[in-house]
Amino acid sequence: MINTLLTIALSLFILAIILALYRIIRGPSMPDRVVALDMIGVNLISGVAVFSVVLHTHAFLEVILIVGILAFISTLALARFVERGDIVEHKHNR
Amino acid sequence: MSINTIAEYFGVVLILIGSIMAVISAIGILRLPDVYTRSHAATKSSTLAVLLSLSGTFIYFWASENFISVRLLLGITFVFLTAPVSGHLITRAAYRSNVKLADSSTEDALEELFKK
C-alpha cells in the first residue's frame, strides 16, 4: 500500500518535471525558461526526498540541501544575466 | 494498527498531496498567458508542494526509524526562504528587460515609474 502510494507520487513529480520541460523548450522569452528551470529544481528536491523514502535510507538527504542551494544560486545568476547582460561586473573606473 | 503505522501513512499521504500540488502548478505553468502569472504558479504552489512532501518525508522517518533529520528541517527552511526571493528577482529582471504583459491584463502600475 505504502509502496503503491509512493510510486504514484514519484510518477506525478516526473510528470510535473516533463510539463515544465515543455515550457523550457517552447517558452517565448528568456525569463519564462528561467521560471520553468527554477520549478524543475524544486520538483527535483521533492523527488529526491520521495526516492529516499522508497529506498529506506538517509543517504540522499544531503542531496536535498545541495540541489536547493544550487537551484537558488543558478536562478540568481540567470536573473542577473537576463537583466544586465553579464554576471560578473568588471570595474573600469573607480 | 500501532501509532507508528498511522504516522507512516500520514506522512505518505502528505507526500501524495504534495505531488498532486506539483502537477497542478505544472499545469499552471503551461496554461497561464505571460511570464508574470507563470511565475505566480511556479513560485507559490510549487513551494507548497515541496513543503508538503519534505514534511511528509520528515514524519515518515520520524515514525518508522525514530530518526529526526536536522538536514531535512534545514532544507525545508531554505526552500521556504529562497523561493519567494528567486521569484521576485526573476520577475523584476523580466520587467526590466521589457517582456510584454499578456493582452488580457488591464493595468500596469509600474509603467510611469520606469518611463523616466
TrEMBL record, chain A:
InterPro entries in UniProt: MrpF/PhaF-like (IPR007208)
Alphabetically ordered keywords of this record: Antiport, Cell membrane, Ion transport, Membrane, Transmembrane, Transmembrane helix, Transport
Location(s) in or outside the cell: Cell membrane
Membrane topology (UniProt): Multi-pass membrane protein
Keyword check for Transmembrane: yes
Membrane-spanning residues: 6-22, 34-54, 60-82
Domain of life: Bacteria
Major location (coarse): membrane
Family (UniProt): Belongs to the CPA3 antiporters (TC 2.A.63) subunit F family.
Name of the molecule in the record: Cation:proton antiporter
Organism this protein belongs to: Planococcus kocurii
UniProtKB/TrEMBL annotation, chain B:
Keyword Electron transport in record: no
Alphabetical UniProt keywords: Antiport, Membrane, Transmembrane, Transmembrane helix, Transport
Subcellular location: Membrane
Top-rank taxon, per record: Bacteria
Annotated coiled-coil segments of the chain: none
Pfam families linked: PhaG_MnhG_YufB (PF03334)
Ranges annotated as spanning the membrane: 6-30, 42-62, 68-90
Membrane topology recorded in Swiss-Prot or TrEMBL: Multi-pass membrane protein
InterPro entries the record matches: PhaG_MnhG_YufB
PANTHER family in alphabetical order: ANTIPORTER SUBUNIT MNHG2-RELATED
Family under the similarity heading: Belongs to the CPA3 antiporters (TC 2.A.63) subunit G family.
The protein's name: Cation:proton antiporter
Organism the protein comes from: Planococcus kocurii
Lineage: Bacteria, Bacillati, Bacillota, Bacilli, Bacillales
